[in-house]
Write a structure and sequence with these properties.
By secondary structure, this protein is an alpha/beta fold. It is 17% helix and 21% strand. The protein contains eleven helices and 22 strands. It has an eight-stranded mixed β-sheet with strand order 1-2-3-4-5-6-7-8, with no helix packed on it. Strands 10, 13, 14, 15, 17, 18, 19 and 21 form an eight-stranded antiparallel β-sheet that branches. α6 links the parallel β6 and β7.
Length: 593
């Protein structure tokens, strides 16, 4: 790789100023007599005033954005060009902005700028800067958008008057190796925005040691995704005045007083809620054949339930000690298909929930508390990702509302940040549960019910009734076959089929706490092909066709064909919110325990 030093770039820019060319410098075009210079009588001469005017004209304009000192230097090269020496030039510059110049080395030549106060090297290819190569007069250093992974080299002989350090848009992951009050005793402002810093508590504890720090920016780092980011910074750094370009008020600090002393907080865990307020225009599932108890006809019944699945960067499920089941942080346990669900019931049985005392149970967002019952987590799909599912919902003619939000917890903030830059896919899944009747096993422990209208001594009719209810699952009269056998409904293994999906970008969550919208789904299921009518209806239609043919022969107009309007497109509304604590008590509401 070719070495491009700062000093080489400076010389190139200095030459572009043309300090020794007309109208600057000591050329023959000058009317005034300068020491050691004899005028040529055959040359047209310019007055000092006209030279100054020419130097400011558009014709002789030069690029000046790389330093605030160029204008003065150009004027001096016209008024008094004899003092413009290399030593004078290095002493003259107090600001340098060498941006996007592909500089990959800061050599010792920078020490020639003995009065340099502000240096910006943004957008170059630097991976290190030796602190010993920086002028002692430097107070502002901007090294945004380079290739820094640490700043250890910069800590060697740091300029004592450095007040601001801007090192955003780099690849810093851990600042503990180069942030210390010994290195930066007078640092007032530090910009670490848009790096890869992912450990909140260790980062804040390190920054809190800087005695002079008043302005801090950590925006755009993975730690911003943690709900307690603001509270941790404000409580641990009481001398801070500005955080992420926002002034800190007394109320802001009071809201989080003492939160850093609370135990059991996972500072590096992000919490998100995913909700689907509306699913519209879902086609109606096929109807079951009717049950005829009088005729002892019990055709198989199918129950359709619907849920939405999606993959998200999240912590893997843990196992509850002694249960063998997944302990799903912040969620309820998924409905189990074998729990005696009956045809026509709205949802599967949910034997367990992770309800916690003092939390909301309505499952709605905007209360500042997590829902007590929430959907399930499926098996892990990709490394660092988990497949989530909403609770199952029955079909409704109006829009379907999945009101219970899915809670996502992720302790790998770097992985979460990368995930949010991609598209997410929401998949609508239909769960079909088929049930049929089987002969119920005899209950030998039960007492034979007494004849109608009679009483049996020594029996326990109340217990018998309870057992009948438990056997059939309802308080209704049990169903029987022709032989008088009591029947019960038995369910098969649910079958899952993907109906539709939608993909969308959620990159906005890196900057804001909420994103959402309504989108048209891509239908993936194969809809059944309409079959020709059969039986009586088909014969009637055939007769109708013959009549139409006869009518056509008599000259009557054929019956117009009524076009069926296409179904409305399937639409899914989604809402993803990133939890952000507003006060110190919020962490208790969102605690996993």
């Amino acid at each position: 790789m070719t070495t491009t030093t700062l000093l080489n770039i400076f010389y190139n820019d200095l030459n572009s100023l043309k300090l020794d060319q007309f109208p600057c410098g000591t050329g023959s075009w000058r009317q005034d007599k300068l020491p050691g210079y004899e005028q040529d009588g055959d040359v047209n001469h310019e007055t000092l005033q006209s030279l100054e005017e020419l130097s400011r004209s558009e014709i002789f304009q030069v690029h000046t954005s790389w330093s605030d000192d160029i204008k003065d230097l150009r004027e001096l090269s016209v008024k008094n060009p004899g003092i413009i020496t290399e030593s004078f030039i290095f002493k003259h510059f107090k600001t340098l902005r060498l941006i996007d110049r592909n500089i990959n080395e800061v050599d010792r030549g920078l020490l020639k700028f003995v009065n340099l106060e502000q240096l910006s090297l943004t957008g170059n290819s630097l991976s290190e800067i030796p602190g010993s190569h920086l002028p002692r007069s430097l107070s502002v250093l901007q090294i945004f958008a380079n290739k820094f992974t640490d700043l250890v080299s910069l800590t060697v002989n740091v300029p004592p008057n450095l007040h601001h350090l801007g090192v955003g848009y780099n690849q810093l992951t851990d600042i503990t190796s180069f942030i210390s009050p010994y290195y930066w005793p007078n640092l007032l402002s530090l910009d670490l925005s848009y790096n890869k810093i992912a450990h909140l508590e260790a980062t804040v504890e390190c920054l809190a040691t800087l005695p002079s720090l008043r302005n801090l920016s950590l925006a755009g780092n993975p730690i911003n995704l943690a709900p307690g980011y603001t509270g941790c910074v404000l409580d641990c750094m009481p001398r801070l005045n500005i955080l992420d370009d926002i002034s800190i008020s007394d109320d802001d600090r009071l809201n989080f007083t003492g939160i850093s002393q609370e135990g059991g907080i996972n500072w590096d865990q992000a919490i998100l809620t995913v909700m689907f307020p509306a699913l519209e225009n879902l086609r109606k599932p096929p109807e079951n054949e009717p049950i005829d108890e009088a005729g002892f006809l019990y055709p198989n019944q199918k129950k359709q339930l619907y849920h939405i699945e999606f993959s998200f960067a999240a912590d893997p499920p843990t196992v509850r000690p002694g249960t063998g089941t997944d302990a799903r942080p912040g969620t309820g346990v998924d409905a189990r298909p074998g729990d005696d669900a009956r045809p026509g019931t709205a949802t599967d049985a949910c034997p367990e929930t992770d309800a916690r005392p003092g939390t909301a149970t309505d499952g709605l967002l905007g209360t500042g508390t997590p829902p007590a019952d929430a959907p399930s987590i499926k098996e892990e799909e990709k490394e660092g990702e988990v497949v989530f599912s909403t609770i199952d919902m029955p079909w409704t003619e109006e829009k379907m509302i999945f009101s219970v939000p899915v809670i996502v917890r992720c302790s790998d903030l770097s992985n979460l940040e990368e995930f949010l830059t991609k598209e997410i896919q929401f998949t609508l899944v239909e769960k079909t549960i088929e049930s049929w009747t089987v002969i119920a096993p005899p209950d030998t422990a039960s007492t034979t019910p007494p004849p109608s209208g009679g009483k049996k001594k020594g029996g326990a009719p109340k217990e018998d009734k309870k057992k009948k209810k438990a056997e059939t699952g309802t308080g209704e009269k049990p169903i029987k076959d022709k032989e008088g056998n009591i029947l019960k409904w038995e369910e098969g293994t649910p079958t899952l089929s993907e109906i539709a999906h939608v993909k969308t970008s959620i990159k906005n969550l890196l900057a804001v706490t909420e994103c959402g919208g309504k989108m048209e789904c891509v239908v993936t299921e194969k809809l059944p092909t309409p079959q020709p009518e059969s039986g009586r209806n088909s014969s009637q239609s055939a007769k109708g066709k013959k009549k139409d043919n006869k009518a056509g022969k008599k000259g009557k107009a054929p019956t117009p064909v009524v076009e069926v309007a296409p179904p409305e497109p399937l639409q899914l509304e989604y809402q993803i919110s990133r939890v952000k604590w507003q006060c110190s008590d919020d962490h208790k509401r969102w605690s996993e325990n």
